From TrEMBL:
The keyword Protease does not apply. Pfam families: PALP (PF00291). This is Pyridoxal-phosphate dependent enzyme. Belongs to the ACC deaminase/D-cysteine desulfhydrase family. Transmembrane segments: none annotated. SUPFAM superfamilies: Tryptophan synthase beta subunit-like PLP-dependent enzymes. Residues 5-296 form the Tryptophan synthase beta chain-like PALP domain. It comes from the Bacteria. Keywords: Pyridoxal phosphate. It comes from Streptomyces johnsoniae. Coiled coil: none annotated. The keyword Transport does not apply. Its cofactor is pyridoxal 5'-phosphate.
Amino acid sequence: MVLPAALPSPLVPVSDPELARAGVELRLKRDDLIDPRVSGNKWRKLVPNLKAALDGGHTRLLTFGGAWSHHVHAVAAAAAACGVASVGVIRGDELADAPRNWSLAEAERNGMELAFTDRRSYRDTLRTLDDPATRRRLERRWGRCYVLPEGGSNALAAHGTAGLVAELPGLGPRDLVCCPVGTGGTLAGIAAALPAGARAWGVAVLKGAAGYLEDEVTRLHRSGWGRTFPNWHISHTHHAGGYARLPAALTAFARAFEERHGLAVEPRYVAKMLHCVYDTAPALPRGTRVTAVITGRPHRPATA
Ligand SMILES: Cc1ncc(COP(=O)(O)O)c(C=O)c1O
């Protein structure tokens, strides 16, 4: 195992009168407890890629993300744990001389070299990431690297998240397995692995991403499984104004959930997913069982 982990992650029932009134059962798949350094879906997505990188003799990982990317600092931590170097190409050259936020500071503490890039070049590089010319350019700048896309979502990553379904025995037609959606890799893997009847339910955390995220999940299914799957959908109602936004209604929901159930939830993804589950529960068929994947843990407040 390239990164040892506590698996299977716990599956915890949630007892809540609000959900009971709707006749909906909720349980939490605590992937946030997998590993203290690389938690949740990051571990599931990175491990198959780390294995491929090490098997291929790579000594450096290179990836992409915004200033608050969980994926970027997870790659830094994973690379440090495996003894390989890492580079983070960060969107926004204006950040180069700004004080580091905790996310980038943590990446640097883990030895990641940060390359701040203007938004246009960043977008162009990601758009052409699979082109040989782009790869040659990255290699000229950084040497031989194992390249992970933004958010780490490639076919190997999706196969990694598919692994969590094997830890959910007895799924059937009354089951919805729910996760937040940033780039779609986690949802793609879950949907591909579900048994007949069960459905995957993604909650988009990005504003205005309807269509785009569905296309990304479909692309990952085609590249990872050579086919598409009909058993999933994405809710676009609970992005709370966009990735960077943490409006009062969302933080109040997260606080109330913590008070009632003793679990502090990561705000940008996990709180939005749970908020959507609670708001949608009355519209679900009675008897539905929702398994919400807790894909990460809270770090520090966004203002830190
Ligand atoms: C805690 C958490 N949940 C969910 C996601 C979204 O996963 P995906 O990009 O596979 O859709 C992320 C993104 O990295 C994340 O940090």
